[in-house]
């Protein structure tokens, strides 16, 4: 990312979201977010997803493919309900969204808030370390 102030700001948001969700900044837990624009409300926001690739076990018996392999992320129904956090530019806080009727993954999708603009990926270690932006066209 070319703008260091924006990069620092977004990395700080990831840290705050990790605290709210009781998440770790790892490739199995919290590592990505979705930038969206809502034209009706003239709002730009970011939807964060934690608990992305939990370990496959009795509580999470689903095969999520290659990215799940090697996961040590233990989850339960309660922690999965706390995996979605939204932040809207110009607002002062983060909002935890608990979609109770969407078991077992409890996922909220960015297109429920508006048009997808870009994805953010934040890795704290490894060959892809840093913040990466993938814009949509």
Describe the structure.
The two termini are 18 Å apart. It contains 2 helices and 6 strands; from the N terminus they run H-E-E-H-E-E-E-E. By secondary structure, it is an alpha+beta fold. Helix content is 16%, strand content 28%. The chain has one domain. It has a 6-stranded antiparallel beta sheet, with helices on one face. The protein has helices spanning 4-21, 77-80, and strands at residues 32-38, 43-49, 84-88, 94-97, 115-123, 130-135. The protein is globular.
**Structural class estimated from helices and strands:** alpha+beta
Number of β-strand runs: 6
- The shape is globular
Mean pLDDT: 90
- Spell the H/E element sequence: HEEHEEEE
Domains, number:
1
Biggest β-sheet, characterized?
A: 6 strands, antiparallel
Number of H/I helices: 2
- Give me the Rg, rounded: 15 Å
The CA-CA distance between the termini, in Å, is 18 Å
Record the strand order, biggest sheet.
4-3-2-1-5-6
Helix content: 10-25%
Contiguous low-pLDDT stretches (5 residues minimum) are none
Proportion of strand residues:
25-35%
Outline the fold blueprint.
Blueprint: H1 4-21, E1 32-38, E2 43-49, H2 77-80, E3 84-88, E4 94-97, E5 115-123, E6 130-135
Antiparallel strand pairs: 1-2, 1-5, 2-3, 3-4, 5-6
């Amino acid at each position: 990312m070319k703008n260091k102030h924006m990069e620092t700001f977004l990395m700080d948001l990831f840290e705050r979201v990790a605290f709210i969700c009781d998440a770790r900044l790892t490739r199995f837990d919290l590592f990505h977010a979705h930038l969206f624009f809502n034209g009706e409300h003239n709002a730009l926001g970011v939807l964060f997803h934690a608990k992305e690739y939990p370990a496959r076990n009795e509580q999470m018996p689903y095969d999520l493919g290659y990215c799940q392999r090697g996961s040590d992320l233990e989850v339960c129904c309660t922690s999965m309900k706390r995996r979605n956090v939204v932040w809207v530019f110009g607002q002062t806080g983060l909002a935890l969204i608990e979609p109770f009727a969407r078991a077992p993954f409890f996922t909220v999708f960015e297109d429920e808030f508006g048009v997808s603009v870009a994805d953010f990926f934040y890795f704290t270690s490894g060959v892809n370390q840093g913040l990466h932006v993938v814009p949509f066209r």
